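Continued from yesterday's entry.
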Amino acid sequence: MTAAELLSGHNVSRETLGRLEKYEALLRKWNPTINLVSRSTLDQVWQRHFVDSAQIFDLADSNANHWADLGAGGGFPGLIVAILAADRKRALDVTLVESDQRKAAFLMTAAREIGVTTRTVVDRIEMIPPLHADILSARALAPLDKLLEFAERHLRPGGQALFPKGASYSDEVCQALEKWRFSHEEISSVTDDSAVILSIRDIERV
C-alpha cells in the first residue's frame, strides 16, 4: 500500500505527503543513533506511527488552540499533529515536551526541516509550569493513573486528554478509578484491533 493510500481518509495535499516523506527520511537517518522508534517498526512507519498518530488528531476537538504532547520522543503524535494542522490551515499551537536532550534536538530539527512550527520544551513533565493545554496527548509514556496526574497539571479546565492504550487498557482504567474521577470514551484503534484511544475529560482526584 502506498503512502497516499494509507492516509487516503485524510485527503492530505501533495505538499503534506512530501513533508511526511521527509519526516520518514529523518527518522531513518537519526534512529540508529538515538533509537526514536523500535527498529522493527521502521519498515512500517506509515502504518505503525503516521496513521496511528493521525487517528489521534482526528479525535481532538476541532476548536482547540493549544495541543501539548508529553514525552514526544520521535514526534508521535505531536509532529504528525503539527503537519496535519498545517495541511488543514488550522491555527494550532503545538508544544512538544521531551526531557531527553538528543530526542529534543531531533524534534526541533525535524520541525524546521519539515516546515512546521512547534515549541519544544526540554524538561521533565512534572517540573515545567502548567501548560494549560486544550488537548493533551501521550503515546506509550506511562500507566493511565500517572498520565492523569500529568493531565491534572497541564490540561486546562474543560480540556481533552487523548491517550492511546494497548490490550490491557481496561485494567489501567480500573486502577485509575481508584484514585481519580473522570469521564471517558474508548475509541477502537484503526491500526491495532486490541488497542483503543481513551478520550478523557473532567479529571478530578477521588
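--- second protein ---
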Amino acid sequence: MKPERKRATYQDVLDAPEHKVAELIDGELFVSPRPAIPHARVTSFLSSDLHHRFDDGGSPGGWVFLIEPELHLGDDVMVPDIAGWRAERAPDMNAAYLSSPPDWLCETLSASTERLDRARKLPRYAAAGIDHVWLLSAIRRTLEVLRRHEEKWLVVAIHDGDVVVRAEPFEAIEIDLARLWARLPPPGRVAEELLEYHPSAP
C-alpha cells in the first residue's frame, strides 16, 4: 500500500521560495516559476486596457482590478494573473490576501502551468462562484472566453490572432488583440522561448 499523502497547508505556501508562485489546491501544493517575458507582456497589456476603461475613473467604469492577487477560496489558495471585482463588491485593499471571489479573472497560459490552470484551477473557480474566466495564450495568440453555468464552464468564444473583439463581461469596449501580441517573437519561437525559460516544463 502507498503511504497516505500528507496534505499541504498554508504554511507550505508561505515557506515556498519567493521567486516562485505557490498555490494550494485540494490539499496539494503547486509551485510554479515566475512568468516568462511573453506571458508577462500580454498580461500587462490586457490589464492596462481594462484598468484604463473600467477602473481608475475610466468609462464605462464599474470594476476594480488586481494583478496576481492571492485568493483564499475555501481551503484553496490560488494566484490568477488578473482578477476583477465589480465595484460594488470591491475587496479590502489593505488585506494580506482576499477571500471574496472575483467576478472575472484571467489566466495567461504558459508551458509549465496550462495543465494546472485548466485541469485543477478551473473547476475550483467554478465551485467558488466566479462567473467569467478568460484564458489568454501568448504561445497560440488566442483568447478563450468562458462563462460559468452550474459549476461548469461554457466556451462562449475563442478569438485567434490579430482581431478586435468584444468579450463578456467587458462587451462595452473593443479590445485589439494585435496590441497584446505586438513585439512578441513569431508564434513558433514564442513556444520555444517559453520552454527554454521553464526547463522543467513537460
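The chain has one domain: 35-197. DSSP finds five helices and twelve strands in the chain. Will compare against the first tomorrow.
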